């Protein structure tokens, strides 16, 4: 659906580390969907030209890392760049991570960074202490 809305310049790349078994990875419901929707809505929908979205799942020491990145406009919440930006998606991610981190041994971290080399934003969720 998004390809029709964003045009033929929209590309999605999936990168799944072969050593990660998706059946053994437990993430809170909607985490990846929220990241993808934010990348499209806030980063790519207003961008002209090539629009790239990348979803990468990789193993890290003691767990996995899920990153969603785009080559969009970047993340500058203080500038109020989008009138429709409520911040609800990221708030939900941080709040869910806080609740789960208080209840479980498995710890989640959420990071948001502006990409320097290719512009855009990268949001990563690290899940530690996953049993492979």
From TrEMBL:
<dbReference type="Pfam" id="PF02518">
    <property type="entry name" value="HATPase_c"/>
</dbReference>
<feature type="domain" description="Histidine kinase/HSP90-like ATPase">
    <location>
        <begin position="32"/>
        <end position="126"/>
    </location>
</feature>
<dbReference type="InterPro" id="IPR050640">
    <property type="entry name" value="Bact_2-comp_sensor_kinase"/>
</dbReference>
<protein>
    <submittedName>
        <fullName>LytS/YehU family sensor histidine kinase</fullName>
    </submittedName>
</protein>
<keyword id="KW-0418">Kinase</keyword>
<dbReference type="GO" id="GO:0016301">
    <property type="term" value="F:kinase activity"/>
</dbReference>
<dbReference type="InterPro" id="IPR036890">
    <property type="entry name" value="HATPase_C_sf"/>
</dbReference>
<dbReference type="InterPro" id="IPR003594">
    <property type="entry name" value="HATPase_dom"/>
</dbReference>
<keyword id="KW-0808">Transferase</keyword>
């Amino acid at each position: 659906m998004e390809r029709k809305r964003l045009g033929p310049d929209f590309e999605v790349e999936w990168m799944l580390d072969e050593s990660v078994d998706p059946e053994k990875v437990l993430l809170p419901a909607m985490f990846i969907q929220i990241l993808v929707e934010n990348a499209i809505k806030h980063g790519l929908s207003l961008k002209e030209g090539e629009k790239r979205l990348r979803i990468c799942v990789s193993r890290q020491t003691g767990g996995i890392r899920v990153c969603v990145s785009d080559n969009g406009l970047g993340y500058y919440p203080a500038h109020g760049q989008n009138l429709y930006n409520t911040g609800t998606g990221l708030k939900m991610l941080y709040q869910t991570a806080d609740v789960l981190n208080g209840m479980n041994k498995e710890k989640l971290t959420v990071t948001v960074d502006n990409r320097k080399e290719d512009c855009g934003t990268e949001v990563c969720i690290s899940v530690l202490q996953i049993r492979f």
